Amino acid sequence: LEDMQESFKFCYEVHYQPGEDRSSDPQPPQEVQALQDKLQILDRQRREVLAQLQQLLGRSETPPDFLQQELGAWRERQQRACPPPPADTHLRPLETWFTPPGQGLFQLLQLLRALAALRQEVTYERDPLGVETPLLEQRLQELLTYLLQSAFVVPPQPSMPNACKRPLVLRTGSTPPARARLLVRLHDRNHPMEAPPHIDRSGPPGFRRFNILTSSSKTLLAGDSPQEGLVCDFPPLTLKEQKDSRSGKGSKGASEGPLAVTEELHFITFTLAYTYRGLKLELETSTLPFVIISNNNQLSSAWASILWFNMMVSTPPKHPPFFSAPPLAPWSRLAEVLSPPLQSVAERGLSQEHLLMMAEKLFGEV
């Protein structure tokens, strides 16, 4: 297409003078007719290229949808798991699936920009590049945004050290490590990409408020090993409860607020200013909801809240008032989540006889 356009430009500049009066000519000169033929061929070729790009974009919509399903299954396994899953083992296959579609979409973006550059050199009436190229680029950027946003994840969920393998339960002043990871492994080293963490950016009224005292942001970098991908590793984050200046105490007392401490659900959110090949996006990902306790006596109740929420909600919303009116669960679903915590600690789960005995204790004869 570039060669064809250069040939047309050369013929146009050599044989055709736009200001020349040709009204008296009975027939257009041979050179002008040849130029018109070249323009028709160029127009046809541009339309063929655009049709091919349309077809490629149509095919490119399938992989992100498939990957979203695979990622959704991974998120569900992560949510249902009691011990934190080994992130690298689970995410390495997803990274190998996410990266090639990202490469292909960025390559299509380069082609579209090359077509836009060709139009800057040569255009004409009813030029298909003038109408189609912006629409294709908008559609392509939507696909890239969808793919990259899906690929920004939190591999290990927050947890306290030595907390009986119970993630998603933290203690005030605790220092959980944190990591965010991008599964599309495309990185421009000339543009550092930072991901600051925030806790409870828009939490419900009445919840306690916390500040993160360490590491306001980190830069997305390649991990220490090829298995880690592009990660933002944060040192242990210190969570500090905000104080109420009116009372000199925490923003919520033991008997204040709509919910108990062990029923408040909190989030840490990471935002990433992603830049690659001229495309700039803001990506966002959040941890699963977790509970912040003030002493170890609240650990069991907090863990029960996490189990109940993860059992009933498959896609956690941001800051849900879940325990204001918690949904009921059938015994069959509750029985499914009782055995894994015991198995993670005692290396032995509950048998059907154990579950039947517990059901009889709770409900009488079943």
TrEMBL record:
InterPro entries hit by this protein: p53-like_TF_DNA-bd_sf (IPR008967), STAT (IPR001217), STAT_linker (IPR048988), STAT_TF_alpha (IPR013800), STAT_TF_CC (IPR015988), STAT_TF_DNA-bd (IPR013801), STAT_TF_DNA-bd_N (IPR012345)
Position of the signal peptide: none
Domain Signal transducer and activator of transcription linker: 321-365
Residue span, STAT transcription factor all-alpha domain: 1-144
One of the record's GO molecular function terms: DNA-binding transcription factor activity
GO biological process terms on file: signal transduction
Top-rank taxon: Eukaryota
Keywords for this protein: Cytoplasm, DNA-binding, Nucleus, Phosphoprotein, SH2 domain, Transcription, Transcription regulation
Protein's cellular compartments: Cytoplasm; Nucleus
Keyword Nucleotide-binding in record: no
A Pfam cross-reference name: STAT_alpha
Domain STAT transcription factor DNA-binding: 157-293
SUPFAM superfamilies for this protein: p53-like transcription factors, STAT
Disordered: region residues: 15-34
Cellular component annotations (GO), alphabetically ordered: cytoplasm; nucleus
Alphabetized PANTHER family for the sequence: SIGNAL TRANSDUCER AND ACTIVATOR OF TRANSCRIPTION
Protein name: STAT2 protein
Organism from which the protein derives: Trogon melanurus
